[in-house]
Structure formats: structure tokens, C-alpha cells
Amino acid sequence: MATNTEPELSRIGISLPKNLLDKFDEIISMRGYSSRSEGIRDAIRNYITHYQWMSDVKGERQGVITMVYDHNQRGLLQVLTDIQHDYMHVISASLHSHITHNKCLEVILLRGEGSDLKTIAERLMAQRGVESVKLTTIPLRD
To answer: What confidence score (pLDDT) does residue 57 get?
Structure first.
């Protein structure tokens, strides 16, 4: 039973690729966490905060999506192009850069309804072979 000062803890089990866990362990060690659990709790809190912030993206906004992906993932380039064509009305420009032979960085400039910007980012994020997507927006004010 949890005391008034301690929240009740739940135990979970997760499966992770070894390279992901190794990177995570390296980061939690560099940041001085006392355990993986502490690092995972912090990561989950950050994820929740980010999701809540993303949920508040409303109204006319200007923004940028930064995305890293594996261009060798079968069919991914066509899907990414199709998604961007679906949102031509809010995409101002994009920049593509080769990081390594297999990895690409794409920067997409956006301007439009916040919910559209968020939807583009979420659709890109959901694709297999996309390693990271970050949406940053600001409200438009006169």
C-alpha cells in the first residue's frame, strides 16, 4: 500500500531492440539517473507533456517539421511524397539532405491551421522507416 507521499507503483515489462536499450542506458548514465526506471519515468513524463502540447496546436500557425528516415525502407519515399501532396495547401517548402548512405533529413516549412500541421506530423511519424519527427509551431499574430 502506498503512503500519502508515495504514488502507487505499477510494474510493466517491455521488449526493446538491444541497440535502443544500449543508447538509452548510455543517456541515463550520462544524465546521472540512478536507474532505468527513473529514466523511463522521466521519458514517459516528457512524452505525455509533448502529446498534451501537440493537442493544443490550434488556429493559424507557422511551423517546421524535422524528420529523419531510412530512405531504403521499401515504399517509404512514395508514401512520404503522397502525404506531403495531400497537404500542399499548408506546405511552403521542403529541404532534403543526405545524412548517410541510408539516412535522410527532411525539413518541411508549414503555414496553416494548427490541426492540419499536427495531422501531417502524426501521419509522417506513423510510417515504418521514419526514425524521428518533430513539429515546432508558433501562432500567427498581427
So the answer is: 73
